[in-house]
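ugh ok so i messed up the first submission bc i forgot one of the chains. this is the corrected input, ALL of the components this time, i swear. 452 residues overall. if the numbers dont match what u have on ur side tell me asap before i send this to the collaborators (the ones from the other lab, u know who)
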Amino acid sequence: MTDSSTLNAFVAIVRRDLLLAYRHRAELINPLAFFVLVVTLFPLGVGADIALLKRIAPGVIWVAALLASLLTMDSLFRSDFEDGSLELMVMSPHPLSVLVLGKVTAHWLLSGAPLSLVAPLLAMMFNMDAEAIKILLLTLLLGTPVLSLIGAIAVALTVGLRKGGVLLAILVLPLYVPVLIFASNAVDAAMAGFPVSGQLYMMSAMLFLAITLTPWPTAAALKMSLS
Amino acid sequence: MLPWLTALLIVLLAYGLYGGLVMAPADYQQGDSFRIIYIHVPSAWMSLFVYVVMAISGAIGLIWHIKLAEIVSISSASIGAAFTFLALITGSLWGKPMWGTWWVWDARLTSELILLFLYLGVIGLYGAIEDKRTAARAVAILALVGVVNIPIIHYSVEWWNTLHQGATVTKFDKPSIHPDMLIPLLVMAVAFKVYYGIALLMRCRNELLQREQNNRWVDEILEKL
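and heres the new structure output, hopefully the right one now
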């Protein structure tokens, strides 16, 4: 196996998943609609006090993003598990961790990335200022891939179970906490006019750690789920 | 071995509780309420310790496929969850008179709560998978991933300067706690460790017998009991 063929496998997986998703375009909208809906519920729940809404906006948007990404996680390996292509991936000569990384990349492009792009619009509705919105977008772009990567481990653990849904939430949410803390802290600090480079560096570090480390447990969990 | 350990536990507990509740002087600031640390601190230590044991034995089971390590790992989970719960409950009982509130969203409290959810996730995952060997491996992977949280809890007090006080015991030069208070605390910590050992051995025995219930040697042991 040369390096370039492994790279080809990675690209092929990404392309395949994107194509598959493109064929089912309607499903792509669902998590976004969920995201927007959850955020919309908050002004209805806590009242339309604009000062209060502005203060809780970063947390609300981030928690909603967390839940939306959790909702999409289950589909990451589900259909491949059901039609058996997952077994073929496990048996392929390429390292499974690279294939997993490909699947997660495609998944993020379809869930996390659009989510991040919709978020500034919502932030504007919450009356956040431009500088804070910029930071919010940055944290989402840095943070949502980490969510997908960490979530992939838990999905791989539960993919063989028939009722994995609630269990998945219990497994994943505690692991999401550090991302949430740093991200909403960064946006809060930006709203208060403090420098946020520390939090952003921390989140970049988390992203790179997640990219390098999570594919292995995910691959191991997949092999275990299929055995 | 169990009777010996139980005897040791009783001695340690008796000494630790007597020393902590009767002999140690009342704190000049907190009065008698501080005495709850004799339960709170050891169980908080154990909640972290058990998790590390669970993760390490899980890793051993995962790498070398040692059945016993898997059993140790999964048997630790519910004991650890109990310790975590105890630490949270005693902490909040203590927090009411001291901080004036049952709960604050402080870094250490929150991360301890997350630890509880990690334990619950482990137990839930183990219960959800029918084949127990597969389940043990799944749990091991999850426990290893969750280990990231342990240093976060441990250093949370130093990183975020929050309401929960910093360590008073493990400063190497000179502990900022009086020896009369410290010694019972350490004895209690050892007692909790011994208790963990006893509970772990008993749970492992049950788990092992249950897994191997179709073998003849299990029947022989059960007949003897």
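quick check: Chain B touches chain A at residues 62, 110-111, 114, 117-118, 120-121, 124-125, 128-129, 134, 137-138, 141-142, 144-146, 148-149, 152 (CB under 8 Å). that seems consistent at least. Helices of chain B lie at 2-23, 37-64, 67-99, 107-128, 132-146, 149-159, 179-211, 216-224.
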